Amino acid sequence: MQLTCDRALFSSAFQTAASAVPARTPKDVLRNVYMQLSSQGVELVGTDQEVAIRFAVDGINTTSTGETLLPTARVSSILRELQDDQFEISVEDQTLTLKTAASNFRLSSEDPRDYPPVPEFDATDFFRVPAAVLRQIIRRTSFATDAESTRYAMGGLLIEFLDGTVTIAATDGRRLAVASAACESEGSPTPPEKDTVVPTRAMALLERSIDNEAEYVDIAVRENDVLMRSGRCVIYSRLVEGRFPKYRDVIPASGAVTVPLTAGPFHACVRQAQIVTDEESRGVDFVFDDSLLSLASRAQDVGESKVDLPIEYNHEQICITFDPRYVADFLKVLSPETLVNLQLTSAEHAAVLRVEESYTYVIMPLAQTGR
């Protein structure tokens, strides 16, 4: 088997496939990237058997067919150091050779027949979401998951398809992020009755793999797994077991006060207030009073701070304490000019931050610090 590769294109594809290769695994064969040459082209595959990536490689010149395993760590190092625009891969028995005009590397390769099968995207019934929009709503929700949760399926993102809309929700029990967008259907896709919760890692891999030129992402949901296709990349993932919390029940319908804020200046104030916090005292008091928002923080053996932000506010004073990390997580996925409506009820009730009608973030307050 022999092929000539465009170094830049192959390296980019290899890095994408390698992102699904586990850092540690008892199965040595999973430390490799699987490469298949067929009449349809060349594909690279990486998997840890929970999540997998298939990537169709461009810039290949070959008349061969076959399969081989590429040792991930060694091949990654070689690709980083090669300087030529093209290089050649050849395989004979279980010896892998990568060479250019000035370099020649010979590596031992494992038997590709030992590599576990990875499903292809062959669905005819699936949902189709605009690529740029899906990437945005993944970014706006994935930070709110809880990888350590065992009670609910909080270690993933809930995906719901209903009436031409896709909704993604994530929660760790202390905050909730929900974002939605319009979507289309190809064929007659029908999601299973149970919750469709995709692991956070799989959604992060999808978000990173969406090409800037990709127009859509196709999503085929099955009983226990999901396939997601964007351009040359297909991501397979098993679904998270367990039920997702009934997130709609915790979103307040309305609040006593709505405060309009601009994301950039608000984020700057939150970052400043966060400086004078520590592990013992993470809370920051958000005081809304007479056209001013004051953020006050104090930490023993560190000091104290007070940051003011002029706002539109002419109601009774409300002082509510938040963990500033949770507020900053929401603000940093927004562009600085984004208008945010902060919905408040009292110091004891959850606050709601909304961006138009498509993005909602609910955050629980901390106990008052007494400042």
Would you write up a description of this structure?
This protein has 371 residues and is of the alpha+beta class. The chain folds into three domains: 2-114, Roll (DNA Polymerase III, Chain A, domain 2); 126-248, DNA Polymerase III, subunit A, domain 2 (DNA Polymerase III, Chain A, domain 2, Roll), CATH 3.10.150.10; 252-363, DNA Polymerase III, subunit A, domain 2 (DNA Polymerase III, Chain A, domain 2), CATH 3.10.150. 17% of the residues lie in helices and 41% in strands. It has helices spanning 7-18, 72-81, 131-139, 200-209, 263-275, 324-331, and strands spanning 2-6, 32-38, 41-47, 51-57, 60-61, 66-71, 86-92, 95-99, 104-108, 126-130, 156-162, 165-171, 175-182, 184-186, 197-199, 216-221, 225-230, 233-238, 257-262, 284-289, 292-299, 303-310, 318-322, 339-344, 351-355, 359-363. Strands 6-2-3-4-18-17-16-10-14 form a nine-stranded antiparallel β-sheet. Strands 15-11-12-13-26-25-24-19 form an eight-stranded antiparallel β-sheet. A five-stranded antiparallel β-sheet has the order 5-1-7-8-9. Helix 1 runs antiparallel to helix 2, helix 3 packs across helix 4 (200-209) and helix 5 packs antiparallel against helix 6 (324-331). It is elongated and about 80 Å long. The model has no long low-confidence stretch (mean pLDDT 93).
Q: Let me know the CATH homologous superfamily of the largest domain.
A: DNA Polymerase III, subunit A, domain 2
CATH architectural name of the largest domain: Roll
The span between the termini is 72 Å
Q: Output the strand order for the largest sheet.
A: 6-2-3-4-18-17-16-10-14
Fraction of residues in β-strands: 35-45%
Q: Total strand count, please?
A: 26
The number of helical segments is: 6
The CATH topology assignment of the largest domain is DNA Polymerase III, Chain A, domain 2
CA radius of gyration is: 25 Å
